[in-house]
Every structure is written in structure tokens, then in C-alpha cells.
Amino acid sequence: MQRKKDKPGERIALVTGANRGIGFAVARGLLDNDFQVILLCRNKRSGEAASQKLGKKNSVLIVADIRDERSIIAAQRYITKKFGKLDILINNAGEIDCGEATIEQTPTSEFDRILSINLRGPFLMCKHFLPLLKKSNSGRIVNVSSEMGIIGPGIRGNKPAYRISKAALNALTSVLAAQLKGTKILVNAVCPGWCKTRMGGNGAHRSPKKGAETIIYLATLPKGGPSGKMFRDKKELPYYRCNRICWLIKKFIP
């Protein structure tokens, strides 16, 4: 039996790290698009402040840590009981290396911390929320990545943990999209650009709202939209940066 079309307010979106910055802007944008939005935040106080600031009746706060699998399972059980499905999963929460340490200067504990948030967290979120996404008419997964995760000629050596984690997140996006090919679920990554957030700093030239635009665009893709890709400003970015010879081969040889 085909599921009936969702009415406004019946579409459910979950945003990790929704208490500030780009995640908060995404939550606000989805609320404006008539989604029921679940704010998943690690910090209860800042999560409550964000929820109050949104001032929308269609927002729900869940305090959970994406590094903790038990915490994610508890959140999944709550959402299953309350909503019975999930339409949008946005893996936004992330961290970046402090300073400009090289690989040999990066503490192992710092490397582990960043990968646990930027890679293991999204993996666990996808793993445990896929059963709910499969109940949606139009499931969408958006992994917030970065152009710094693109590999190939010209790559810089700074922020190694962040770069490696985002390259791996792009791989997760690609693998999951291949697994879900032929289903109603689309999986994509996004580079929001350098945004003026706690992570991006005051020197950034983009607003969180601007950074959220392409995330919301991918979250609301129509049936038959792209999957397994990375986007910036609603245009596709490559996972691998080719050199000039590679570019010429791709351009002139079908």
C-alpha cells in the first residue's frame, strides 16, 4: 500500500549540532519550509537556548552525543516512538584541528576526537536512523563536509585530522549512496563554504544562513535527484581534484 503524501508539519528532519552556527540556520530554514525539526545537541543548555530562540512549535530538542552509540540508540528509540519515521537526516556537527600542527605534531587524542565527531558520529547516525528513513516517501541524508576533504594535486598539509575526516566522510557518502541506489533515499555531501561561526571564526566572509542554503536544497531534493555527490552553492564539486592532464582527458574523451 502506498503511503499518503505528507502534509505540512508531517515531514520530520533531524539536524545534529543544531544549537548554533550553520546547524541552527538549517533548523530555522527547515522550520520555515514546514518541517518538524529535531534539534540534536550535545549541550543541554545551549540546545534549550537555541530551541527557545527558534520559537517554533514544530521543533523538538534531544540531548545526545553522536560520539556515544548508546546515546544515538536512545534518540532513535525516542523518535521512533514519537514520530514513527524520519524524512531528513543532516549530519552537521563537526570539529576542526586547533592550530596548524603537522601530522607528527598532532596528538593522537586530538586526531581520535575529531574523527569520532566528523566521521564515526555520522556513520553511527546513518547506521541507526536508516530504518526510520526507509519509512519515508522521500528520505534524504546530507553530510556536511568541506572542500578541505577534496584530495589530489594542490592539497595543503595543514589541519590534517579535519582534512582526513572530511575525505572519509565523502567516502561514506559515496558508499552509502551506492548501497541505497534504487531506493527513495538520496545521500549527498555539501561544502557550506567558509562561514562566520565558532569554527569558522570572525574572518570568514559567509553567513551561517548562506552556508545553510545548499544543505536545505539537498534536504529537499525532488524524486530522481542526484545522489552520492558533493555540492557547494547548489553546484557539484568533485571528490578528487584532477591535475591539468586528467582534466583534459575527462573533457575530451567520453
Please explain how this structure is put together.
Helix 1 links the parallel strand 1 and strand 2. The chain has helices at 21-32, 44-54, 69-82, 108-133, 160-179, 208-219, 244-252; strands at 11-16, 35-41, 59-63, 88-91, 140-144, 186-190, 230-232, 235-237. It is globular, with a radius of gyration of 18 Å. It has one domain (11-252): NAD(P)-binding Rossmann-like Domain (Rossmann fold, 3-Layer(aba) Sandwich), CATH 3.40.50. With 254 residues, the chain is of the alpha/beta class. The chain has an eight-stranded mixed beta sheet with strand order 3-2-1-4-5-6-7-8, sandwiched between helices. It has seven helices and eight strands; from the N terminus they run E-H-E-H-E-H-E-H-E-H-E-H-E-E-H. Helices cover 41% and strands 15% of the residues. Helix 1 crosses helix 6, helix 3 (69-82) runs parallel beside helix 4 and helix 4 runs parallel beside helix 5 (160-179).
How do you describe this structure in short?
With 254 residues, the chain is α/β, with parallel strands linked by helices. Helix content is 41%, strand content 15%.
Q: How does the SSE layout of this entry go?
A:
Blueprint: E1 11-16, H1 21-32, E2 35-41, H2 44-54, E3 59-63, H3 69-82, E4 88-91, H4 108-133, E5 140-144, H5 160-179, E6 186-190, H6 208-219, E7 230-232, E8 235-237, H7 244-252
Helix pairs in contact: 1-6, 3-4, 4-5
**In percent, how much strand structure appears in the residues?**
5-15%
Separation of termini? Answer: 42 Å
Question: How can the largest sheet be summarized?
Answer: 8 strands, mixed
Helical/strand content category: alpha/beta
Q: What's the name of the CATH homologous superfamily?
A: NAD(P)-binding Rossmann-like Domain
